[in-house]
TrEMBL record:
Carbohydrate kinase PfkB domain span: 58-360
Alphabetical list of Pfam families matching this protein: AP_endonuc_2, PfkB
UniProt keyword list: ATP-binding, Carbohydrate metabolism, Cytoplasm, Kinase, Magnesium, Metal-binding, Nucleotide-binding, Nucleus, Potassium, Transferase
Subcellular location: Cytoplasm; Nucleus
Organism: Chlamydomonas eustigma
Keyword Transferase: yes
Reactions performed catalytically: D-ribose + ATP = D-ribose 5-phosphate + ADP + H(+)
Principal place of residence: cytoplasm
Quaternary state and interactors: Homodimer.
Stretches assigned to the Xylose isomerase-like TIM barrel domain: 483-723
Residues where substrate binds: 65-67, 95-99, 200, 318
MF terms (GO), sorted A to Z: ATP binding; metal ion binding; ribokinase activity
Taxonomic lineage from the root: Eukaryota, Viridiplantae, Chlorophyta, core chlorophytes, Chlorophyceae
Annotated pathway: Carbohydrate metabolism; D-ribose degradation; D-ribose 5-phosphate from beta-D-ribopyranose: step 2/2
Protein name (record): Ribokinase
């Protein structure tokens, strides 16, 4: 079957077919992880943790629930009632324990004994259905009891159209554990190979089982999902693999940011500092990261689900962890275990429900093989590389922070999400502190961010430019600026009436790419407000304009839509209903995010005051964060403009820290100024507040900022090309200075001690 699949619809030569044959033979009959396996001597468990040559069952200790799934277009906001778009609910077996037990049963090889499941049935009509389903799936229920005075556990699942799920769990019989139950369970640990725990049962059960497992030399995996409570340092130290998803990792670490892989690693290592051993973090579409106790980092990319559509993510994490445990129980290396887990999770999200979505071993292996074949088939000229691919686990050097100069193995896959610049050689103005030469070599390690500058600035000093004074001429002029990689367009100001293909051609000719599209609502229509206009039809018109800008962003290959409205505010007391205006902004952004699609970032660029509205409805970083949280869309975030932050009386670095900690910092716009008239001066970066500017760069490094840098400056008398290039050079110099401050760790010590004098000493140039 696989041979037919590989050649179907392909014009393959005999040589190609023979190459595919060898590939499939290798995948099926040799060690799948031969290309990127981790030698066993590089991962150290307790010496007694040896997987027996005689197969032992996996023990799953956890919850069982009746999952009641409701389909919704979106989640309700506080105090809001919404209607399901399906006339009925679906009912299925669920609960992390039951899901994982069934998943293990379906994934085990034929020579493995069935998994043992320890849980409690409720005393109600659901119990028979739960028992029957688990038994039919080959789960050993000999360690399960019945809670005579409790109903079955229930999970109420809200399933959104994109497959995202949110759940509320009612514990029921899962809370009914007695001392006798725990004592019997700890004795049973001696006869199993691996223990899987999760947190929808009392913590005392997990601690007792983990302690018994450690004494017996049995490997323990702890799923962090379940009750929202702190996990004890005792339990952290007892389990071998701690397995949170991204939101659980944030919760466990007190809100540490995780929006880049480097930050995920930092958060995982903070748990290791508390006693955790190996931390395996699942990141949804971003794959997974395993941070080992020895300091290794293994990255596993997500696999595309069969059919290419995420239907329901309810059981994906359970399928992933079960597959990982099964593979470990078979003695497979970590890379193979992560690949098997990724395939299991990919299949699970392609189906509705928890238990109904869990795949068989043959399905998982088929998807792994298909992914390998597709990878090879996509390569040009039929050439086949047997190196580790993006759909397998890649071992990464433990110096993960790209701006700290980390070295990557083989593919040099950057573990942070920062993108390297489009070229490694930049030209800078003569007389720069780097020397008199116009050409200065800057390596990607110096700064991996990309840069854009204000397109309207290219209208200035036309006496220095012989090209046309229109959008195409400005793009052409921007392309001649040393260090600029991207163009941020305004809509409709720059793009209305143009052909997307012509704009793309102009970008290509200039050696540039589109970074973002920024909305500039026309004053002729929106003087009384855009998203806050008093009339609904005009608010809808504002959303339509922004959605048109989003379409342009898609057409040009830009990654972000930035919304700034000079008109969403007021001038007088008793002029607007603040609550109603806020609500209108929330609803407008919700509609816009949905229209743009989850792949397009949508951000608000707040400005506290403007001549068009003296008070903004969204006047601060804190309010912008609150707005994003209430919009509650995965593609909604914040673009911070330093000029606007100065106008608001904020410390820009503190605003960056707050926005990044919330997980919503999408964009950065930089300039400097005095703000003597309460206006935005748009002066060159770092020209007025150099220490402030350095702290901004320092915190962009620290939070792992991964967007591009846009210089929102207004050169009216200066050569705009040299001014833009100078901004890039200044930022890069500050980047190196910030990196030096971070590398020495003295600044971190200063910040912990609030030592202002020592800070000033370190900042002396």
């Amino acid at each position: 079957m696989f041979f037919c699949y590989a050649f179907e619809g392909r014009n393959c030569s005999l040589k190609d077919r023979f190459t595919y044959f060898l590939l499939i033979w290798t995948v099926l009959y040799e060690d799948f992880s031969v290309k990127c396996s981790v030698p066993s001597n590089q991962l150290h468990f307790n010496e007694s943790y040896v997987i027996s040559k005689i197969p032992k069952p996996i023990l799953v200790v956890g919850s069982m629930n009746v999952d009641i799934t409701v389909r919704v277009h979106r989640l309700p906001m506080k105090h809001e009632t919404i209607t399901s778009h399906s006339p009925s609910t679906s009912i299925a077996v669920g609960g992390k324990g039951a899901n994982q037990a069934v998943a293990v049963s379906r994934l085990c090889q034929s020579n493995m004994p069935p998994p043992k499941f320890a849980s409690n049935f409720g005393d109600d009509s659901f119990a028979a259905m739960l028992r029957s389903t688990l038994s039919e799936n080959g789960v050993d229920l000999s360690l399960c009891g019945t809670a005579a005075d409790r109903p079955s556990g229930q999970g109420f699942v809200l399933l959104e159209e994109d497959g995202s799920v949110s759940s509320i769990v009612v514990g029921g019989s899962n809370t009914a554990w007695t001392g006798l139950d725990i004592a019997l369970l700890t004795k049973a640990v001696a006869d199993v190979g691996i223990v899987m725990l999760q947190r929808e049962i009392p913590e005392e059960v997990n601690e007792a089982v983990a302690e018994a497992a450690k004494a017996e030399g049995v490997l323990v995996l702890q799923d962090v999902g379940g009750e929202d409570r702190l996990i004890s340092d005792k339990l952290l130290n007892l389990v071998d693999f701690l397995c949170p998803n991204e939101s659980e990792l944030q919760r466990m670490t007190g809100g540490m940011p995780t929006h880049t892989e480097g930050l995920v690693i930092e958060a995982a290592r903070s748990l290791q500092a508390r006693g955790a051993h190996h931390v395996l973090v699942t990141l949804g579409a971003r794959g997974s990261l395993l941070v080992t106790e020895e300091g290794q980092v293994l990255k596993q990319s997500a696999l595309s689900p069969p059919g290419g559509i995420v239907v329901d993510a309810t059981g994906a994490g359970d399928a992933f962890r079960a597959a990982f445990a099964v593979s470990l129980s078979e003695g497979q290396p970590l890379n193979h275990s992560l690949a098997l887990a990724a395939a299991a999770g990919a299949i699970a999200v392609s189906r509705l429900g928890a238990v109904p979505s869990l795949p068989s071993r043959s399905e998982v292996e088929a998807l792994m093989l298909t992914s390998q074949i597709n990878k090879i088939a996509a390569q040009s000229n039929g050439s086949v590389s047997m190196t580790c691919t993006s759909e397998e686990a890649i071992e990464v050097d433990n110096k993960h922070d790209i701006q700290e100069g980390s070295d990557m193995v083989e593919e040099a896959e950057y573990i942070s999400s920062l993108q390297p610049p489009s070229t490694s050689s930049y030209k800078y103005p003569s007389g720069s502190p780097l020397g008199t030469s116009n050409s200065v070599s800057i390596t990607p390690d110096d700064c991996t961010l990309r840069f854009a500058s204000r397109l309207n600035s290219m209208k200035e000093r036309l006496d220095l430019w012989s090209g046309s004074n229109d959008v195409f001429g400005w793009v052409d002029r921007m392309g001649a600026v040393a260090g600029i990689d991207l163009v941020d367009f305004n809509y409709p100001q720059h793009l209305e009436g143009l052909n997307p293909s012509a704009v793309r051609a102009a970008l290509s000719a200039a050696g540039l790419q589109a970074g973002a599209v920024s909305i500039r609502f026309p004053s002729s229509e929106m003087q009384m407000g855009a998203f806050t206009h008093p009339h609904e039809e005009m608010r809808s018109r504002a959303v339509q304009i922004a959605a048109e800008g989003c379409q342009w962003a898609h057409e040009l290959g830009a990654s972000e839509l930035v919304v700034w409205s000079a008109f969403d505010g007021y001038d007088y007391h008793f002029q607007i209903d603040y609550t109603s205006a806020w609500r209108s902004v929330v609803l407008s952004f919700q509609e816009l995010c949905d229209l743009c699609g989850a792949s397009m970032k949508v951000s608000i660029e707040f400005k506290p005051t403007d001549e068009s509205s003296r008070f903004s409805v969204v006047p601060s970083t804190g309010e912008a964060i609150r707005l994003v949280q209430q919009v509650n869309r995965i593609n909604m975030g914040i673009t911070l403009d330093v000029g606007h932050l100065l106008m608001a009386g904020e410390n820009p670095a503190q605003s960056i820290a707050a926005a990044a900690q919330s997980g919503h910092l999408f964009g950065m716009q930089l300039c400097d100024g005095y703000s003597r008239l309460g206006a935005e001066d748009g002066l060159m970066w770092g020209s007025v507040h150099p220490i402030m500017a350095l702290e901004v760069v320092y915190w962009l490094q620290r939070v792992g900022y991964s967007g591009h840098i846009y210089f929102d400056t207004f050169p009216r008398n200066e050569d705009p090309m040299k001014e833009a290039s100078w901004n890039v050079w200044t930022f890069k110099e500050m980047w190196k200075r910030a990196r030096a401050l971070r590398a020495g760790e003295q600044m971190e010590s200063v910040l912990k001690e609030h030592d202002a004098l020592h800070s000033q000493e370190l900042l002396q140039f």
